[in-house]
Amino acid sequence: MTEAKLARSPVAIVGGGPVGMMLALFLDLHGVRSVLFNIEEMTRWHPKGSTQNARTMEHYRRLGIGDAIRALGLPANHPTDVVYFTRFGGRELARLKMPSPAETLAVRAAAPTIDRTPEPLHRANQMYVETFLLDHIRTRPNITLRFGWRVERFTEDGEGVTLQAVRERDGAQETWRSDYLAGCDGGQGDVRRGLGIRYSGQSLQQPYMGGRMFSTYVKVPALARDFLRGDRCFQYWIVNPELRTTITSVDGRDEFMFWTGATGEGASADDRAVADAMRRSTQSDIAVEVIAHHPWTAGMALVAERYGAGRVFLAGDAVHLFTPTGGFGMNTGVDDAANLAWKLAAMVQGWGGRGLLASYEAERRPIALRNTGAARELSRNIGDIDIAPSLEDDSDAGAMARRDLGALLSTCGEQYNSIGVQLGARYDGSPIVAAAGAPPADSFDSYTPSSVPGGRAPHAWIDESRGRGSSLYDRFGSGFTLLRLGPHASDAGALTAAAAARKVPLTTLDVADRDIRDLYECDLALIRPDQHVAWRGNALPGDPAKLMAQVTGGALC
Q: Pick from 263, 306, 375, 521: CA 20 to 30 A from residue 115's CA?
């Protein structure tokens, strides 16, 4: 065993999943170095969530990797429909029509100036995205990778955090000193446990999507060839009195993620049981290649009681555990990282105030409660449906049962089109938001753009090309951005000077378009580094220095 070496980085991140990697990339965007620890040497090659929602896609765009992410996942012409069958080769109960990746981009190309997002939702399995993110991180000089390293312990003092790390392969040791530590190491992670922080919340117990389940990576060449016969979809549900299963396309060809319920809380994964479930789903002796299993618990809606302590913070599954319905889990974690990153950067660079990091929990914990609650309710809708014994019968009673169930399943589209969850997160009541006006009503399945401080800045297109640089978001700086809207916006020199005095990075952006000014309903809007509105008005406040102190978590000196 080699002797430990001492190394330094402003931020240490434990956990190299999508949230930890995105946090490192956001810090890199803000010019802050980090070191990223992960026990495994590579990202895990097993299908997980396939939803890169609109807000996450916007974050990828900020990092300059949005187009590369869109190239991952299902083929460009592959529909993303969701269909419910009694069985493959049986009767179709309901179908939720959704566009292929190519159709999504065609709609974006023709979008009006005032369009709600530059980056619509994209279906690409998380295992592909994680592999890409790791490869991309290797090109970023601000990020030091320690994949294959385990953080054995950490200690905090008034000046920073000290970590002892061990390389799994050979026992080599390193000691790292950082200003801040971020635990992105999941629900069973050591950082949250080391802080003594617990989850609170409830879990569902119901016939399906409640309790212990298995996600199995399978290869089934005959499924598309003999049963789907060109009817390609993103996700297939089998619903009948005997069983309920969910099958998600991974590569658009013959690889799938197959969900099955466990026979008991202590049950282990069984290749034969999974193959049998596929045979019952098709009513045939179909060949199934089982690649790997992953156990998980459906119906969870758990949120950590705190989001950190002292100089140690938590993000992603370390602070919230979701049932996967709606695809909210990873995406909520990426938004955690976007919020935390600019605040850590502000503290490292010296322009963040004493109250800034406390606002992380104040802003993000209510969102976790909101989003886990939404996922739980959607899971209840799907998993607790009564199935008539006559559903598969060739009879009048069977036809009526199929018609009634199909009508009910046709209303489940909000779990796939939950634009309100994706774009509607708001930080109302945050101490670093200058309140002004009443926010729009919250809704899972609808989104109302609003410049009322606390919410995501309304989006608009600046030119007709709809390419890189065409989005209003593309013009925002990596720090704060002051929008001067309309042809007669007032002078912003005093606010620029106040930002400079506090060393706050501030970009001033003039947007003369009247439609965009009407969208914002103000002449001036101050946008935070995470693209949320911090303040708005038709003229500068009487004390710009006081405003800059508030939105950066400080007190006026």
A: 375
